[in-house]
Amino acid sequence: MKPGLTVAAVFVLSLLLTAANQVFLGSPVPTALYALAVCSLFFFSVWEEKKKRVRLITRLNALFDGGEADPTAENEESALARKVTLTRKSAEVREKRLAEGYRNLSSLVSDIAHQSKTPLTSVKMYAELLGDSEEAAVIRNQADRLGFLFDALVKLSRCECGLIDENLDPEPVPVDTLVSRAVSDALPKADAKDIFIRADLPEGLTVFCDPGWTAEALFNLLDNAIKYSPPKTSVTVSAEEYETFVRIDVRDEGPGIPEEELPKIWKRFTRGTEAASQDGVGIGLYLARAIVTAQGGRAFCRNSDGAVFSLILPKNDVNQHKRSGSDG
User: Which residues in the chain come in under a pLDDT of 50?
Assistant: First the structure.
């Protein structure tokens, strides 16, 4: 009931009470009936207002879920519904354009990186012809650095535009398979620094993840551990099973990470004080965390006689319950 109608009803009831008191002098009946009528009117107004709010909230939720407003209705609720619909559609258009822009940018970066491989290969080949001179070593080193930067940009662009989420194909994967794949990619750099990679894995341990992307995340942790470990030390990969997840640890014997820098190391292009003298652009840990998070897992780091990087991966499909519920 509208406020104006409520006021009018109370006014009419007051007039009736005045007239009744003139007829029934000294009787409490008119006053009691008046109080009862006013209370009933009050509770009826509150009930109507609650119904209106519930109806409005239900309608707005339907609009946010993709419903349409009635273009022919002429009331305050319909005007608000049309405004919400217009705002939602504008946001959807902006989001679509932004996603398309990220895809185009990712495609452009990938094309540039791909087209740059041919001249980089030529530069390396001519550097080999120069022999073992100091100039040739500088050219080879810079060409390798450019190749690394191009590869890093391609991975970053895929992550930024959501291609990791769209290309995940999770399945049950043995943990030792993931570790073997990551270790094989990290061995050349470990051998160059005389670093021994040790694996301590329980038998029969399985996680539910995309094997390719997850091995890439684990490799990034190994590469980071090797980079900051002193020569002739060890990097240990271990795993521990819990009720619903598996934790994979990569432990190095390096200097560790300053406590104030621990919350920042997972951000893109972030490099700590110990990283200033090392090659890299600061996206390896960012990519590792993005890959694991997209699969319902987590990544974190702590200090314990060196740095310990951990990946938390689910043992089963975390989306299975959602799909079975929607199918039912």
Answer: 321-328
